[in-house]
């Protein structure tokens, strides 16, 4: 037990205060589940073909034969071209002469042209998407994966700045400011008049999305006791993210227009305003800033809610001295300053990056799977619920390092097996993909909580934000993994599976944190590599001991 946990043990593990913090913070996670994945429906590509203007005088035979047939790369069957048509002037001339296609005219000799008059889209599934509104097809199809990448560029930026802002100005204020940023930017996005405008606002929404997620995650980890913290950081946060993800296909099924869908997803964000008065600041953070009186006031209020009599002095004079010392400014550079923390950080960044590629590529791929897009997305979300529950059970009773290793390797192997499935066994391939998503989701839930346990209070939010930032390189390129389907269906699975297995092997180098108290300073961190025996730190450290240890670790 750390100094902080010993001083606050009087509060108990569970009571009205913990229930309030747990519930409200989990509720703030829900919008992240549907906002991050909304692009699956907003930017889905409906079946399309070149538009033949209604005013062009063609016979029914020539109008039905105006689109050339092309061999589909996946199945080898002939399908109407999506990006070309027979030259309109020529087929109009044949129509005027009364010639019949395929009888009087050999269609293979008729010249072709692009979709000069635009495209017509199948409206049976969607009223409109950004693809059908701004014609993001054929020569402009590269804009579709770029749209998702722009959002994840925003997530990358938010990961970079939010952690440092949260460590400097507090978890609570960053949580609510970025919740407002996400809600307002998504609302403005409804009124986008062009694809560039949509992308710019989508970038801002990405900044807000990851910022409030990380802030809520760290705030809950620091407010709750050790046992409840494990439930919150694995099952709690993740299940409510999954709940938001499950709501997305439900919204999209009933709202088939992308603007109205975004509006529907925005409105719940305004319900979080009253939460400001019920979610407190992190006492751990306040202590690290030397604001002992404010930290004690929060703990005394928590004791009152739990109907417990608090001690007159919660944090001792020695702890006050320590917290005053911790007011020394920390930033993202501290994650690379000493040898031990540098190797832990680099290893985590690589693991997070590979994990994010697999998770988001599999999530974004649901629209491309065989069958109903809404059901496939819902299935992908439902798979996450037992995965999050299992992650909590594994996190509570199993080694963090071995749990992360096993789930990453298992997920990678499932993805690698997909290429061996015959083309006619579509449902078996989908089953393997969902099993891979199941394993990857467990790993994703675990790595967040595992990372928070490895880093000290003075750097925890910055460290989780930095890991999230590093992983966004993976989320930025994840849409292009799906884009590789146009060359080979199995190629994305081979790449994702290989990266996931390799990152699982790499995770074995990380220190073990199971059964260890949360570190408060950099010197409390476990040694790298993980083959070293874990060692608990003593309850107190003098300033001189910490400085001496930090000086030694930089050698």
Mean pLDDT: 81
| Uncertain ranges | 320-325, 538-555
Give the overall silhouette: elongated
* Through-space gap between termini: 29 Å
Explain this structure.
It is a single chain. This protein is mostly helical and 555 residues long. The chain is 61% helix and 3% strand. The protein contains 21 helices and 6 strands. The strands form 3 sheets. A two-stranded antiparallel ribbon has the order 1-6. A two-stranded antiparallel sheet has the order 2-3. A two-stranded antiparallel sheet has the order 4-5. Strand 2 (69-71) and strand 3 form a beta hairpin. Residues 320-325 and 538-555 have low confidence and may be disordered.
Summary of the model, kept short:
With 555 residues, the protein is mainly alpha-helical. It has 21 helices and 6 strands.
Keywords:
single chain, mainly alpha, disordered C terminus, 555 residues, 21 helices, elongated
Secondary-structure blueprint of this entry?
Elements: H1 3-7, H2 16-37, H3 39-42, E1 48-50, H4 60-64, E2 69-71, E3 78-80, E4 84-86, H5 88-96, E5 112-114, E6 119-121, H6 130-134, H7 143-169, H8 171-189, H9 195-223, H10 226-254, H11 258-266, H12 283-288, H13 292-305, H14 317-325, H15 339-364, H16 373-397, H17 400-417, H18 426-454, H19 460-483, H20 491-506, H21 543-553
Antiparallel strand pairs: 1-6, 2-3, 4-5
